[in-house]
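Model it.
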Amino acid sequence: MSGQRTQALIDAALDAGQVVGGETRLTLQLGDEILSMLADDEESQAQLDALMEVISGVRLAGGFGKLEDGYRVELGGSYTAPSGDNVFVTAAANLTLDGVSIESNLIEGERLSIRWETLLRLFGLTDDEVNQIMALRDVDWDNAMEELSTVIAQAAEEIGKLVEPYLATFADFLASLDIQQRDNVAAEGDYPAVDHEISVTCTAEDLGRLFHTLADQMERDDALLPYIEQLVANTTVTFTSDSGETTRTTTTAEFFDGMREFADSLMLEDATLGILVGYNDDGLPFLLHRGADAG
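Modeled.
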């Protein structure tokens, strides 16, 4: 089912006054390496089995719905013991403009209600602070959210324009690295939950060249320079030399010189960074391993 179709069904259910939610079950799975370490430790194995049995009996549930004047949140949890005995707790909260009301099987037949003003004062807010927060009820949120969406869209468009040339730079950088892909990983017995893996090898010299390229590119980027100027003027940006001397940058020229000096120091390092990413046929990452080798 597509994401749009799912969202449409959820919206329809909420508009009809229904509660949308789900249930999850907790599980604990250990890797073969840990299991092999515990193979000869009967006591630890017994404790682990007991823990996994307890966890497997836990269920958590949650739901969300709309009210005429607010929202309803439902939460629940249950535990089924190996003996078959069941313990469960349910709770629901109605959130409206006036306040919050809570009901639960722990207080069956009762409903606890409290106004927002009272709740805020319990958290230590002053009367002025409470009044300022409660004034938010009179805000035209539909209009405010529409204006916010417009601002965010404009900002996203602007950021996209700024980032686009650097995405090309990173693409060129990645293309220069040693990247290997291997299939049938699980079949070969390395990682049972992983079908494919991608390994990336990057040296300190590679990173140094990247920083040099970025420094040159950013220094010529008239659209980005005003933001770099604000960064240097309003924050503390320092660079530490190989001798341990720390220098604070006060101009964009010093900022880019610091980037280049850092790049030069990287290029002198005899170090290699390796990244291994594993994933299955559904596209979900199962494994992320990082290793560093200093020569």
